[in-house]
TrEMBL record:
InterPro entries: AA/rel_permease1, APC_superfamily. The keyword Cell membrane applies. It comes from Lacticaseibacillus paracasei subsp. paracasei Lpp7. Keywords: Cell membrane, Membrane, Transmembrane, Transmembrane helix, Transport. This is Inner membrane transporter ycaM. The keyword 4Fe-4S does not apply. One of its GO terms (molecular function) is transmembrane transporter activity. It is a multi-pass membrane protein. One of its GO terms (cellular component) is plasma membrane. The chain crosses the membrane at residues 12-33, 40-60. PANTHER family: AMINO ACID TRANSPORTER-RELATED (PTHR42770), GLUTAMATE_GAMMA-AMINOBUTYRATE ANTIPORTER-RELATED (PTHR42770:SF15). It is found in: Cell membrane. Its main location: membrane.
Length: 136
């Protein structure tokens, strides 16, 4: 009789899972700016934000993601809206999500320049050395 070697399952630890959810919902750069402006008092705001916004957001996303699991639709906001409210709502949800992504990408590119400036030069002067045509 052959014994099957069972490999142990690997689980994600709670700190890793919580940071994954937090960074996915809030964004990495949104952690540092309030801390820079408010100091340690921002921790109270983070706890309130965790209870009021992040945990419900994660639970809602998990519920919708497990409810609508048809492989041919792909999942996501448009699928959730299309399956619950119809094709028109699915279309508008996709379009609005796409439209709000454009300013977000500009903001992220500027945040990358600021972060690189602090890493390389030690101050925020890299943006002044670049042309306005590079990043609006």
């Amino acid at each position: 009789m052959q014994e099957e070697e069972l490999t142990p399952r690997r689980y994600m630890s709670w700190p890793v899972l919580s940071l994954l959810v937090f960074i996915t919902v809030i964004g990495f750069e949104n952690i540092f700016y309030p801390f820079q402006n408010q100091g340690l008092s921002v921790v109270v705001n983070w706890v309130i934000l965790l209870v009021i916004y992040i945990v419900p957001y994660a639970l809602i996303s998990a519920q919708l993601g497990t409810t609508f699991t048809r492989a041919d639709e792909g999942g996501g906001l448009a699928t959730w809206m299309r399956r619950t409210l119809g094709d028109t709502w699915g279309y508008w949800t996709s379009w609005i999500y796409w439209a709000q992504t454009l300013p977000y990408l500009v903001d992220v590119s500027n945040a990358v320049i600021v972060a690189l400036s602090w890493m390389i030069l030690g101050d925020n002067s890299l943006g002044k050395r670049m042309s306005n045509l590079t990043f609006g």
